[in-house]
Every structure is written in C-alpha cells, then in structure tokens.
Amino acid sequence: MSLRKELGGFLKLPDAFFHIRPPAEGDPDVGVLGVPYDLTSSYMPGCRFGPDAIRRATTGERSHSVPLSFGNDVDFEQRPLSEMITLEDIGDLEVALRLPEAAMYDLSDACQRLSEHDSNLLFLGGDHFITYPLLKGLKRGREARFGIVWFDAHADYYPDYGGYELSHATSLRRIVDASLVRPEDVLGHDLRSALPEQRVELAGTGKIQHHTFDTFSRAVRKIADRTDTIYVSVDLDVLKPETVPGVSHPESGGIDMIELVRLMRAVFSTGKVRFADVVELNPMNDVSGLTAIAARDVVKELLTGFAMQKSLKRG
C-alpha cells in the first residue's frame, strides 16, 4: 500500500483545470502542456511562472466547471465542462533556463511527438516566443495547412529585435518566414501597438485593417475554408491593462473580456481549431491576482471551444 492510499479520504485531490478529469483509457479530448519560458522577453521577466499561476487559478477554490455566461450563448452552456470533455495535465517542459536556440528544439520536438495523438492541445506560457517552436513541431508532426489567429496588442513581426531573431517580438515573423503559415492565413487582432507597416503587411490589403466582429468573423471563416487546422494564440495583453495588469508588456487601450470571448467563439465555430496557447501572464507583476483570473477565464473559454467543437461533430 502506498502512503497516499494509507490516508485515503484525508488528502486533498488534485483539482486544477476545473475538475475536468482524464479519460479512463485512450487519449484525452484536451492535453494541457506548460511552457515556463521567458528568456526572450525584452521588457520584464517572470512569464516562466505563468503555467503554475494559471493552474492555481483554475482549482475548485477559485472557479467551477460551468462555462462563462457572457458572450454569445450556446446550447450546452449550462452543462459543466467536466461532463463534456476529458483533460490531461501533461505537466511542464523543463526549458526555463535553456537558451532560445536550444529551447526551440526542445519545444518543437515535444510538439512533434504530441501531434501524433488525436487530442487537442492547449499550451500555457511563457512569453510569446514559444508559439513559433510549438507550431514548428506541430507542423512537422502533422502534414496540414495551418491558419493562425493572433490575439495580441503587438504584431510580434519584427525581423529581429535587438539583433536577436528569436524573441517574443519576432515570433509571428518567424512563423511566416519559415512557411509554417501562409501570410494570407494569418488573422491578427487587435495589434494596436504594432508598427503601421507591420499592420499593413499582415492585413494584405495595402492598408491598415480595423476589424469589427462581423468582418473578423468573415475573415476567420475564409481562413477556415482554405486550411485544415487553426491555431489560436492569445497574448493576454490584447486585453485592457486594467483587466490584465500582470503582463510583461502592458499597453494602453485594448479589448474587454466579453469581446475576446465573442471573437474566440467565432473562431471555434469554424470547427477547425486543434491547438491554442495563452501567453505573457507575469505573476511577478500580478500583485492583485486579476491577471491570473483573466488567464483562467481565457483557458476556460478555450476549453469551452473544444467542447463546442466536440458537440458539433457528434451532432
């Protein structure tokens, strides 16, 4: 008998991620992988503590399993996520102190292995550099045409930043230059602090594009029609700084959580989302804990999206 079994009901059971349990057998509907990496942050370190902070915010003491009640209503919203999907917390990759070149190989190799399974994958950062090697590995392991939806205050589209090609400020540029995603299959929102020329180039229309909910929905539908898989990347600084004070690079302006939820549901309504990440939570700056709460709700909404897609496939 193990020591844990000896204490039986005296011990507190693990309850991160809204009490959603792994399956009795086979692959889970969603696998969650922490990527505690921030050595490419150009402003404030601390995002390597993000995965643990998100886990703590999703425990039973902090939240329940019922989907968020704002945004566009969907039929199954009154059902707890714990009854709709299975989830496995894979753990954290051991990359916190790896130089970017080494971390890139570790992350891409891990994702190549994971992509061979049927599970949807949710990655918890870490700074926004991680999206490039994650997508690199997924693309290597799964032959598919990828689209990407990039929720961020910044475009992260610099050719280099401070002379370094691997940075949280260059990740989307690396993704496009490496032909992991075609330029026309990138949809960025709201990119309010990006350089004008970056916004023009990403829009592909010769001018800066300001999306409404309707134009965003049409744009993501077009991407879904010509791609096999959509990757959703949520940099928390896309939200208003009063909602997310604990990010590494806050910017004035931004969208609110209700708008972000509506936009994410528009992406998931395509049925093409397989992979997602949440990045740039910096617990060292999150004195009030508000940012961890926002990250928790973004995670819950992403899990709701995966549940919605599962429900639509069954229907």
- Tell me about the largest β-sheet: 7 strands, parallel
Q: How much is the average pLDDT? A: 92
Order of helices and strands: HEHEHEHEHEHHEHEH
Helix content: 25-40%
The CATH top-level class label: Alpha Beta
Structural class: alpha/beta
Q: Could you state the CATH homologous superfamily?
A: Ureohydrolase domain
Unreliable residue runs: none
Overview of this structure, please?
With 315 residues, the chain is α/β, with parallel strands linked by helices. It has a single domain (29-314), classed as Ureohydrolase domain (Arginase, Chain A), CATH 3.40.800. Helix content is 33%, strand content 16%. It is built from 9 helices and 7 strands, in the order H-E-H-E-H-E-H-E-H-E-H-H-E-H-E-H. The protein has helices spanning 3-7, 50-57, 100-114, 131-141, 171-177, 196-203, 213-226, 257-268, 290-314, and strands spanning 30-35, 87-92, 120-125, 146-152, 181-190, 229-235, 273-279. The protein has a 7-stranded parallel β-sheet with strand order 2-1-3-7-6-4-5, sandwiched between helices. Strand 6 (229-235), helix 8 (257-268) and strand 7 form a beta-alpha-beta unit. Helix 2 crosses helix 9 and helix 8 runs parallel beside helix 9 (290-314). The protein is globular. The N and C termini lie far apart (45 Å). The model has no long low-confidence stretch (mean pLDDT 92).
